[in-house]
Amino acid sequence: MSAKPATLTFLGSGTSMGVPTLGCGCAVCNSSDPHNRRTRPSVMIAYDGHIVLIDTGPDFHAQALREGITRLDAVLYTHSHADHILGMDDLRPLSFKNPEFLPLYADNPTADAIERVFDYTFRTTNRYPTSARVKLHRIDEKPGAPTPLFGACFRRIPVTHGRQEITGYRFGSAAYLTDMSTLTETAMGLLQGLDVLILDALRREPHPSHSHLANSIAIVEKLKPKRAFFTHIGHDLDHAVTEAELPSGVHMAYDGLKIDFDITDLEGCA
Question: pTM of the prediction?
Fold first, then answer.
């Protein structure tokens, strides 16, 4: 195994409705703190000259402009909810730059939904001439199944999201688990020895399909990563107030936050 330095950027750290939430007059939605402005959740991972995204939500266009994204090498998807896939069409101008079709990776239910929503992109007859030049790959859904990308290994972590199982990812010493309510023992076993753990933490009160603050802190205490960051944050949580309450080594993510870590070539990632 050899370690490669990598940087993870939070393109968005907010909930499905974004923060400020439309029509809301709460203190967080009216806050002047830029950390409380949260676009829909997504991350960018840069390593060894490559750029990989996890999810493309409806704010991807603005996020890409903010971060100066001019090219991409691959996109991984967690699940098919609108706040995670609806920016896929904004990949079009970036995909035109690739000599080959831009690869997208998703589990079967997510791939089915992407093909349905973006039928005009994937159909083989009467295809719109400037559709995104993308190719959808269906990942192995077994827990820990590897997807090798550019010398790094992205492993599928099964995540419970309310009544459904979706996909989280571990890549080297980091893991990204958005939209999770609970983690199975199988998933916990795949998350040992982390440097960086990124978890859903929607609000203070329990939610049927998202982890809440106390639950996410309890998961961190069990897994004991060196660093933990909470994302998919709603307007119930003020950044500064909540950050001050968190245990040592645990932080609130925010749009534009960058984290350095090692993305390791793991054995068995063929």
Answer: 0.96
